[in-house]
From TrEMBL:
Keywords: Membrane, Transmembrane, Transmembrane helix. Residues 7-456 form the Major facilitator superfamily (MFS) profile domain. The keyword Transmembrane helix applies. The chain crosses the membrane at residues 7-28, 43-61, 73-99, 129-152, 158-179, 191-210, 216-240, 260-280, 292-317, 329-349, 355-373, 394-412, 432-451. Its main location: membrane. This is MFS transporter. It is a multi-pass membrane protein. It holds the Pfam family MFS_1. It is found in: Cell membrane.
Length: 466
């Protein structure tokens, strides 16, 4: 077997490559209507399609990994990333670009699968620190990738970022195939295709309502139909999953108190993270006359980037700390650090260095919080359910980020003024966004305090409530 350090390094690179996909189009998002000769509502699908694919594929790929081999499914997802990147790079218009971005979004399932692989193949003494590192890559890749994509789109043709993504995907595919061993742990049974379809339809309906409600109108019939329809489908899906012998997701495991509360905290943590990703770069790049700092997108990205570096630095430390104080307290510390970041910004946000300090605190909070969540999950589920359970946890994080993108985007759009015919957010809009981030972190802290002390999954049958 390859050295365990090499396995960890390869899975960390794979994790960073998945989160990088979400920042690829950020530098050109406002220019897409002109670049693609399409309406702003149509170009919004370039982002929305990636979020939908990530949310749907993450829990599904976790179950597929449990049944057919986690390494095999990782390779398939990375292959979809390469295919989607090539399609996007060659896209002559918006339709093929959306198709490519959808395929790119599917690769998000690599992170929970990687976490499950670590539990299967690593020595027990290295599992916590390795899981902390892989989990934190969800924030690291985005923070480090944003300035790179901004630099490329400023200096070269925007299609080049997708060729870069394709090259990154090929590199990851080769490394995983050569170094990561296949786990011998498999879950027997038949795959739940009905459950897969129900989960996909329900999630797409709800996420469409959340992500497009600001443009369609929150009270518009289409928004209400998507949201209510998605909720009804998910309720029917849950009824079916509880009654089928071989469900896509064992909801009795997901309903156990430690798992359920951790997933609820994950929504709040995901919201707190993405609220910072939406608000801080914008206020840094906003013109001075509008209350911003007037930085270029590359410069603004460099101010945000240290958050990712901090996540990477604190992740191994988080694993050792969790072994000492427990993942519950580590998650609480992460929530407190996020509260400190937003509180600091609300008090002091007149200099660039102050926003840099806030982003460093964001990095500490996400580094601790994202490290703790999969540990809490895996200490509460049977080993045969790790892929699906981690996939579900990643889904809840994605739900938090999607809600943050919609809500913070709506707030900044509502509190805006026209400058040279272009609507730009006001300081009031940014302050409200920071308050929302603070509230989300507070919710994560309160929920965390109610997570019970760990009891090993083997001590209790998964079908019984905790």
């Amino acid at each position: 077997m390859p050295r365990q350090g090499a396995i960890i390094a390869v899975l960390a690179i794979a994790g960073m490559s998945t989160s990088f996909m979400f920042t690829l189009v950020v530098p050109i998002q406002s220019e897409l209507p002109e670049l693609l000769n399409a309406s702003r509502e149509d170009t919004a699908w370039v982002v929305t399609s990636t979020l939908l694919a990530a949310a749907v594929m993450t829990p599904i790929s976790g179950r597929l990994g449990d049944m057919y081999g986690k390494r095999r499914v990782v390779l398939i997802l990375v292959g979809l990333l390469v295919l989607g990147s090539v399609i996007a790079a060659l896209s002559p218009g918006i339709v093929w670009l959306i198709i490519g971005r959808t395929l790119q979004g599917a690769v998000t399932g690599v992170v929970p699968l990687g976490i499950s692989i670590l539990r299967d193949v690593l020595h027990e003494s290295r599992v916590n620190s390795a899981i902390a590192l892989i989990s934190a890559t969800l924030g690291v890749g985005g923070a480090l990738g944003l300035p790179l994509s901004a630099l490329i789109t400023e200096r070269a043709d925007w299609h080049l970022v997708f060729w870069l993504a394709a090259a990154l995907g090929v590199t990851v595919f080769v490394l995983v195939a050569a170094i990561v061993p296949e786990s011998v742990l498999r879950t027997a049974g038949k795959y739940d295709y009905v459950g897969t379809a129900g989960l996909a339809i329900g999630l797409i309906g709800i996420l469409l309502a959340v992500s497009r409600g600001n443009e369609w109108g929150w009270g518009a019939p289409l928004t209400l139909a998507c949201g209510a329809g998605g909720l009804v489908v998910l309720l029917l899906w849950a009824w079916y999953e509880l009654r089928t012998d071989e469900p896509l997701l064992d909801l009795r495991v997901a309903a156990r108190r430690p798992v359920l509360l951790t997933n609820i905290a994950s929504i709040a943590m995901g919201f707190a993270l993405f609220a910072s990703n939406v608000s801080y770069p914008q206020i840094l790049a906003l013109p001075v006359e509008a209350g911003g700092f007037g930085l270029s997108l590359v410069a603004a990205s460099l101010v945000v980037m240290p958050a990712g570096i901090v996540m990477m630095i604190v992740s191994p430390f988080s694993g050792h700390l969790a072994s000492t104080i427990g993942p519950k307290l580590l998650l609480a510390m992460g929530a407190i650090a996020l509260m400190a970041a937003y509180g600091f910004t609300l008090l002091w946000a007149t200099e660039v260095w102050q926003l840099l300090v806030a982003n460093l605190l964001i990095g500490v909070g996400i580094g601790f919080g994202y490290a703790a969540m999969p540990m809490l999950i895996m200490r509460s589920v049977p080993q045969s359910e790790t892929g699906a359970s981690n996939g579900l946890n990643a889904l809840f994080r994605s739900l938090g980020t999607s809600i943050a993108a919609a809500v913070v985007g709506a707030v900044l759009a509502t509190y805006s003024v026209d400058i040279d015919g272009i609507p730009v957010p006001t300081p009031m809009g940014f302050n409200l966004s920071f308050w929302l981030g603070l509230a989300a972190a507070l919710i994560a802290l309160v929920v965390t305090l109610f997570i019970p002390r760990h009891r090993a999954a083997s001590e209790q049958h998964p079908s019984l409530p905790d």
